[in-house]
Amino acid sequence: MTTPGRGRLPLLPPALTAVPAPPTFSPSTFAALVRCPLSQVHGLKGTELLAPDAAAIFGTILHETVTRLSWGFPTGVTEDAAALAEFDRVVAETEASVQREWPGAGLVPLRTAVGRTVWRRGRARLLKWAGEAEAAGTRAGGRGASSPADVRHPSALVATREIPYGREQSVRVPSLRLSGRPDLIERGTDVVHVTDLKSGAVTDEDGDIRSAHVDQLRLYALMLEEIEPGVRVRLWLHGAERVEVPWTDRDRAELRERLGHLVDLLPRGGSVRAEALAKPGRHCRACRIRHRCPGYRKEAPVWWRATSSLHPVAPFDIWGTPVAPDGPTPGTGRFALRDAAGRSVLVAGVPEALAGSLERGESIWFFGLQPAETLPLHGEYNHPRNFRLAESEKRGGTGTSAVFRGLPVSEEHV
């Protein structure tokens, strides 16, 4: 990752060795926390992280648009017009923020970064949601034919002292080490309704509710029951459809057990070895700390030698020792290196000025590259040996494709 204004490549930061356990966990990231604890408790911030994934940013935009529209469509306009107008506002706000934090990352305009197909599908999901919200009579606050009939607005009730009713209210239960912000908590006649909004389908191709959504809502229920013992809670997912998430005694016991495993793994106030928390896998592709993750740096070179008939075998990253220590081959823009798996690799588009300060024996690191060869080839994916740098990186910005100048690669680092 180049550093604007410095005119040189920054040193590769060391792999994480130990991380402090967080005081609380968030229900919204519980699934990711279980999948790879280090990805959520690393403690890194700002420019210590790799640039965000464009698809993840787009998903956040869709969710924020749905959230805003759920609290009431403007009168006098069609659902499509209202949804697209709000969507455009959120996109503009988000792009301005991304441009400030990650200039030159190739994330703006977002429509180009995610690609025409993803952009079109996302907008189509949003319009489908808006149309179904109107058909179900949920223009104001999600209430109507598809909502629980006994829900009343919190202001019309004398709420219990502890449970915070309303939209996006902060809920913190230190005894469970949980802290979150449900999209909506409403009080019914004899039950509390918790609704979480999603910008797309809430069920998978088999018709089952997505497990990550289920965990998030059930953790909210666990928190409210801890605040008000004996309270009855019903859980709702509101996306392209509105569905109820089951919440039984068996579900409660199973979730408490899983939460207990995390509490044991991450003792309050303690420090945990980063390597013990890292669980490398396909999810590493969008992980913003993989350049600091000891597990990824150890496993990725193994993946580079693998093949698959289903999907790419590893993120498009590479690191190793330059074959030509003086930088890119003159007149070609191609940088040759021996990667950490012992392969010969070429990276095109590396400006000579960026590699001019590279010293013999030092390692060059590239993250988020673009393949410069056909994938898959003859039906098989392998990790490319030919890459190219993104255009934004060639211009010297801090890009999704990231270039690092670092210490010699050793077994400890990879």
Plain-language structure description:
There is one protein chain. With 414 residues, the protein is of the alpha+beta class. It has 12 helices and 18 strands. It has a 7-stranded mixed sheet with strand order 15-17-13-12-11-14-18, with no helix packed on it. Strands 2-5-6-7-8 form a 5-stranded mixed sheet. A two-stranded antiparallel sheet has the order 1-9. Pfam families: PDDEXK_1.
Helix content: 25-40%
What is the radius of gyration computed over CA atoms, rounded to a whole number of angstroms? 24 Å
How many strands, which pairing sense, and closed or not: the largest β-sheet?
7 strands, mixed
Structure classification: alpha+beta
Instruction: Report the span from N to C terminus.
Output: 19 Å
Outline: globular
Number of DSSP E strands: 18
Strand content: 15-25%
Note the run of SSEs as H and E. EHHHHHHEEEEEHEEHEHHEEEEHEEEEHE
The overall average pLDDT, rounded, is 82
Count the helices. How many?
A: 12
Which parts are unreliable, with pLDDT below 50 for 5 consecutive residues or more? 1-8, 138-161, 394-414
Major sheet: order of its strands?
Answer: 15-17-13-12-11-14-18
Protein name: PD-(D/E)XK endonuclease-like domain-containing protein
InterPro entries: PDDEXK-like_dom_sf, PDDEXK_AddAB-type
Sum this structure up briefly:
By secondary structure, the protein is of the alpha+beta class.
Features:
about 425 residues, 18 strands, disordered N terminus, PDDEXK-like_dom_sf, PDDEXK_AddAB-type, PD-(D/E)XK endonuclease-like domain-containing protein
List the helices and strands and how they pair.
Layout: E1 18-20, H1 30-35, H2 38-41, H3 54-70, H4 79-101, H5 110-114, H6 116-135, E2 166-167, E3 171-173, E4 178-180, E5 184-187, E6 192-197, H7 211-227, E7 233-238, E8 242-245, H8 249-265, E9 271-273, H9 274-277, H10 294-303, E10 307-308, E11 318-322, E12 334-339, E13 344-348, H11 352-355, E14 363-367, E15 370-371, E16 381-382, E17 386-388, H12 391-394, E18 402-406
Parallel strand pairs: 6-7, 13-17
Antiparallel strand pairs: 1-9, 2-5, 3-4, 5-6, 7-8, 10-16, 11-12, 11-14, 12-13, 14-18, 15-17
Helix pairs in contact: 3-4, 3-6, 4-6, 7-8
